[in-house]
């Protein structure tokens, strides 16, 4: 497909790195871990919030296009309102998207940069369309809206590529399973207090932490972007991700601080005669079976 060829070219377009890295760096330094970051990431929502928010301006703009095409002169005020509402609704979509984008690298960052440019230009065109309609220049407003729709469509396609092809925003443990039977993974004597220790069960990486005499086992791959959690510190009763600072409860894997939105899978742990054994606690999911099965599913 031509679109696939285009996106492959974008993925390799290293000329984009300089401006993209500069913008991502500025966003990253402005948005450190904390409440604002969690709000924009969707930590409170349980999923990335950006994909949900983009539906609002798109819906409003499609409504405007429908009215432009079929509504006749009486519907012009409603079309203008829809264009204006969609433009305002694009602001939170842009902010949340920018926050998510600042955390990706390489090919995803390049494609995301063009995705953001296209959508930002679309927002500008729709803002111009609203202005033109307000001044009575209906035909100009319709033309600008059509151009905006084209750019928003192209930007949306790239956004779809980022999610469905590149896996941005997807729980990175979605296809990882773990043993359903008790499986020995370490000797208890090898575990220092509050010292994350990486072990492997089949193809599933785990991090073990002994704290207050209790051993916890958590999937070692951060659900956010896949960082090795054993390289992060233990902070209170949480494990902190070394890449973007998300914190997960050691006992339950729940997200205590974003930008992660999905909890960290945890495993049942038993200590028997100095041997540490684990087994998975969650129900098996279809996509965790073949061909991506691992760890004795
Ligand atoms: S990889 Fe981003 S918070 Fe862990």
Automatic annotation (TrEMBL):
One matching Pfam family: Rieske
Rieske domain segment(s): 183-278
GO molecular function: 2 iron, 2 sulfur cluster binding; metal ion binding; monooxygenase activity; oxidoreductase activity, acting on paired donors, with incorporation or reduction of molecular oxygen
Protein name: Non-heme iron oxygenase ferredoxin subunit
Keywords recorded for this protein, A-Z: 2Fe-2S, Iron, Iron-sulfur, Metal-binding, Oxidoreductase
InterPro entries assigned: Cholesterol_7-desaturase, DUF2231_TM, Rieske_2Fe-2S, Rieske_2Fe-2S_sf
Gene3D superfamilies documented for this protein: Rieske [2Fe-2S] iron-sulphur domain
Species, as recorded: Iamia majanohamensis
């Amino acid at each position: 497909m031509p679109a696939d060829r285009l996106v492959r070219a974008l993925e390799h377009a290293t000329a984009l790195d300089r401006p993209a890295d500069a913008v991502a760096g500025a966003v990253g330094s402005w948005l450190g871990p904390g409440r604002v970051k969690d709000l924009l990431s969707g930590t409170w929502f349980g999923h990335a919030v950006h994909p949900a928010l983009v539906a609002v301006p798109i819906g409003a703009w499609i409504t405007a296009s429908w009215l432009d095409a079929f509504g006749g002169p009486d519907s012009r005020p409603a079309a203008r309102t829809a264009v204006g509402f969609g433009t305002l609704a694009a602001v939170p979509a842009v902010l949340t998207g920018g926050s998510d984008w600042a955390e990706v690298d390489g090919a995803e960052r390049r494609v995301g940069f063009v995705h953001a440019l296209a959508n930002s230009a679309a927002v500008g065109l729709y803002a111009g369309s609203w202005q033109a309609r307000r001044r009575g220049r209906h035909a100009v407003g319709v033309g600008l809206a059509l151009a905006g729709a084209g750019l928003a469509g192209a930007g949306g396609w790239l956004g779809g590529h980022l999610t469905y092809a590149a896996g941005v925003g997807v729980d990175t443990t979605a296809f990882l399973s773990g043993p359903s039977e008790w499986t020995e993974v370490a000797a208890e004597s090898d575990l220092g207090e509050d010292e994350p220790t990486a072990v492997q069960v089949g193809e599933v990486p785990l991090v073990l932490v002994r704290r207050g005499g209790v051993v916890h086992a958590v999937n070692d791959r951060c659900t956010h972007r896949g960082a090795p959690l054993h390289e992060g510190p233990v902070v209170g009763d949480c494990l902190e991700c070394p890449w973007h600072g998300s914190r997960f409860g050691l006992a339950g894997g729940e997200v205590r601080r974003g930008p992660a939105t999905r909890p960290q899978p945890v495993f049942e742990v038993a200590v028997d005669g100095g041997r540490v054994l684990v087994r998975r606690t969650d129900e098996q999911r279809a996509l965790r079976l073949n061909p991506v099965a691992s760890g004795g599913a």
